[in-house]
């Protein structure tokens, strides 16, 4: 075996000595060129990230399967040079990537050379399962025949996602020598988790020369003719049996979730070799389009008078469809690509809340998955305790061996109450009593965990303190190491009680009180209601800063308030915790230039210690955070401010090619300048894609009660530039309704097409 970092990607010096040098196969130029844009495709637990040319160069891009980068290089060159880019785009439904390229001047090979811009190259790429398919079509638009020296370079480094993100490892698994056939190359890596990962790269037609890192073709292309080359990259994985005398890796048991029958850190893949060629590409493409179309079919549609606004919403729907993965428990939105293409608890709950009014089926899948993976025992390594809802699941080698605790990790303080909140909202939206009955044991365990944490805190709050040195130090949604601090910049001692988590917990107890009352558990209902009210009162007593008309971000382990103005307080409004007067005071701050950049709400006030508009959590703009703040503003009567935030995010999205990233920098908006991108933000990100729908729901004032077959619309408002908006096929129980919002006499009015569904408007 070869104990090296990379298979493939050979250089000119690696060629066999008996091969005659020629001018056809020229070594590629330096691949390490900075790229400004990345494009992604996803299928299940597989995703690919490439540049506009369609190339993978091995920085933070590649073909990833189960949180492992399998393909780390895939480059197309002509005469040793990268082609010129004409355009690179993903289809509107995120099913396929297509690059249009053309040639630089090609060297003469047995005749005249080929001038620049004569050969058109189309690279079309699609994912199906764990197989990447690509068709490369060359068309000669010149008047003379051409000989095109084409090379496809490839390599596999089998790096764990955490290695790609920069984490070093003292030891890695073993790479086997590559197997090279006439039309394919097989590369194999056996990880420390005893998972054997195979990659088979196949070509059609047969290359003129193929070795462990490159396929070379010399294509004779007649004038006005075209020819296609096809390739596939198939990834297979299988668990190896524990050999006699082998010792289980420390922490490896964390890869076993409740009720699992095989290691959770790997998805078993069939070993059937995929076909290579036109038919295979067409089949994969049709399947990808069909899957995306089916997700849209069962979702309510939104159409407006503004084509650009429509394009933003359609891109957002498409991104949610791309990130949604069909699991055994139902559909589940993975958090984001490239770093978080895996189940996260908090992200999925928030995304489901954002889109609940349009597609409640997503919340159903999320609730079932989270209930199925609820902690049943305590584990300091995983930050787990009985009843807690998972924060993150990983399937990579390092997770499987216990090198990192994230195979099934519970270090999120807010996911458990939010799980209950989502269940309550889902029931109101759908009236699905059967699912709540199915989830009831999990809901009770979750509520008991929240109550138990409150009982241990001297002030009765939900708090956290990391139990493992390898876990997350901060366990709210702002989980970077420096996101919670005192007004003098000091880091607080734990346990830490975040202000927004108390609002989630209060809403969770309210939901449990409602559920208990419906189930005839009067004493439990009263107890949950009392807990909710007590939390509200203690937040008002201990978090409110009357001199600043705002709530502090957190209470530290000594009971001292972190007197910091952060967007966390906006979440209190979103879940209705503050009194009316205090909520309106917070709203005024959030609307001011202290927070509002013109593109969205900053995570931290501009006059606060540690403020940095280029930081991850201390001054940047997160679209989902802005959406929650907008929901809060609307809830406390400021629809105009909520509409302004919707307008701001829309205008930001226009500058980000209609796709909101995970976050962007929090600089103030300047005339003629676009928002400033955050360099390593995930794109797409689920709760960023869901943000417009949460704000739109708040602006339209839509409240759906499935049990009553009723839609209540309170003081609807539309952004500037939109004269009408139609919501079609909105499911209310077994019925559907379409609602049109129109501007009439300076107001926005609603009309419905189904009299069987009661639609009441309060202007």
From TrEMBL:
InterPro entries documented for this protein: 6-hairpin_glycosidase_sf, 6hp_glycosidase-like_sf, GDE_N_bis, MGH1-like_GH
Question: Which protein are we looking at?
Answer: Amylo-alpha-1,6-glucosidase
Q: Which Gene3D superfamilies match?
A: 1.50.10.10
Q: Which domain of life is it from?
A: Bacteria
Ranges for domain Mannosylglycerate hydrolase MGH1-like glycoside hydrolase come to 347-653
Q: Report the residue ranges that make up the Putative glycogen debranching enzyme N-terminal domain in this protein.
A: 41-231
Region Disordered: what ranges?
Answer: 1-21
What GO terms in the biological process aspect are recorded for it?
carbohydrate metabolic process
Alphabetized Pfam families for the sequence: GDE_N_bis (PF14742), MGH1-like_GH (PF22422)
